[in-house]
Amino acid sequence: TVTRFCNSNDGPPVWSDVSFFNCRSSAVIDLVDKVSRLVEGFESENISDILDETEQVLEDDKLYVKDIQDIVQEVLENTKQRTETQNDRQQFIRSSSNIVSQKRKNVWMNIPSRNNLAKQVISGADLNARNYISQSAEIGKVALYRTPNIDVIGIRLPTVKPTELQAKGTSLLDTAGEGVVIPDALTNELKEATVVKYSSIKDILSEEELKESVDNTIESTESLTIRSTIVSLITKPGFNESEKPFKIVLQNNQ
Fold first, then answer.
1. Longest dimension (CA), the chain
2. Do the beta carbons of residue 210 and residue 226 sit within 8 Å?
3. Which CATH number does the domain 23-213+224-249 belong to among 3.90.25, 2.60.220, 1.25.40, 2.60.40?
4. How much is the pTM?
5. Arithmetic mean of pLDDT, 189-215
6. What is the domain partition of the chain in residue ranges?
7. Where would I find the beta strands (DSSP E) of the chain?
8. What's the pLDDT tens digit per position in 55-100?
């Protein structure tokens, strides 16, 4: 529903800007309906078809606030654990990348709960990135999957680590040389490691969220702004606090 208010304020009536806040695209409404039927168990709905349609819907550059909310909360949230094939997982990651594209920044800025939505995007993309790496074909070889806003770098490690890994550790870096370097002592304990790099989410988080994300060792001030890439590191098995640190490598003072 498009709304527009007329304000007088003790003077001549003036129309305010048109608000599209409650508008929804018909394509997104149809997509959400199909996801609902999938969740309810209707055999007519196929996860791969839904992910394909999601990707097509996200090609539209003119999505509304409600569209973004519906795609994240209804579509991505309800499909993140239902991906079955590597192609499904790639499509899910591509859609996650598209939904947080910088071209949608102005729409995200009008979403009151955008920090929570961004966390949901990260949660779903992390899960599918981990599953993508766990199903990668070659053990011991770094797998890389890139999208415009989300990069996935990971490796399945052999039970018996080669001498090279034992000596050098594992470098999960993308073509720009960014990612995570896991030292040899930690590499020897791992079966899998996945790095997910989010380059655009920093542009849609609120200033409050950015300040809260500052490392506790840094004193936050009113003038402090953070514009950093968000990096997830997922390992199997997970490791607790360790005296063997890993290194996050980012360029351009990020």
1. 81
2. yes
3. 2.60.220
4. 0.82
5. 76
6. 23-213+224-249
7. 6-7, 14-15, 143-146, 150-156, 170-173, 179-182, 192-198, 230-236, 247-249
8. 999 998 889 999 999 999 999 999 999 999 999 999 999 999 999 9
